[in-house]
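SAMPLE LOG
Freezer: B-3
Tube label: C17
Construct: single chain, 387 aa
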Amino acid sequence: MAPSLSIPSRAQVPEPSMEEIAIRFDGVGYPYFLGHQCTDALVARLLDLDTDAYFVVTDATVDRLYGTKLCVTLSAQRPTHVLECPAGEQAKNLDTLGSLAEQALSQGMTRRSCVVAFGGGLIGNVAGLMAALCFRGVRLVHVPTTVVAMFDGVLSLKQALNTSLGKNLIGTFHRPEMVLADTAYLLTLPERERRSGLCELIKNALAIAPETIPALREILTPDCAPSRQQYARLAQLAIAAKLRVLAEDQRERRAGMVLEYGHTVGHAVEFCSGGALSHGESVGIGMICAAELAHRLGLLDRPAVDVHQQLLAQCGARTEIPRTLAPSFVVARVRYDNKRGYRRQERNTIDMVLLSALGHVIEHDGLPLTRVPIGLVEAVVRSRSRG
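STRUCTURE (predicted):
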């Protein structure tokens, strides 16, 4: 089954226009609307839903920057409740989820209500999991405001939280009703957040679509400041890459697992940093480590490793683990990677997504996973702990 990517003409979309991109994989689909400075069109799409109330989950920064226009306009037409989620990776936990769910239920949430995830990746996960669990599933709409969320996080059914042992260990799958993406939100992002999202797009190019590397090279700069038109192009690249691997794997347990490239060490680095390193930049470090591991195992040539380094450096991303993060702590977190259990575990090994060439993932037992000695992982992590 080939991925479906259909973009209607602008004449079919109300002004101010939002292009509609059909997201379809493995029998599941939802519309992704993309526009620029299009709050009125965004609200109109939300009001199309037959709902008794909106529960907008956001953080203080997003609410201050954009919330007034969105929520006031929405509340003029339908009951709208704003639930403020604490900012920072440390808030991505069950306590936050429980608090938000209690607030929503006490304010009258019903099975006909709609949860609006208005923010970045953390908001998308917390609000998404809340929508999946309340009444065993209420409607969810993503309104992403970061590069990571807009071009990566919302292109998936996954919703997950962290525990004290590692990232994304508690979660489920929940289909959104739609995604409403306004690239104007991205223009106010700090450089750190823009870079984080671009690192995820580099991951797609390296692991899935190496033919897009030339286009990516034209956009990447150290200050990570794409134009409006370049953001639109990045959206096309991101959606096409993800649909390519999710076309027949909505739960990312086979071909879609390649999206975890760089995440084994990356999640461990991010977790150990306590939020000091962004998700995307941590994944970038994880990709460098994965490439080096594949090279040391004789699976990936040095030029391909160098391309990893070059693309990340071009967008100003860190490629080494800070000295403040003890390698032993990072490796300890690697042992709790969320890909454990797909294959029978062997002592002192970890399954990782590795490449044999750009765009070519290595498979074993029908899965895109390679068993790597934990001692070699530690050696590579130590070799990258120079930043």
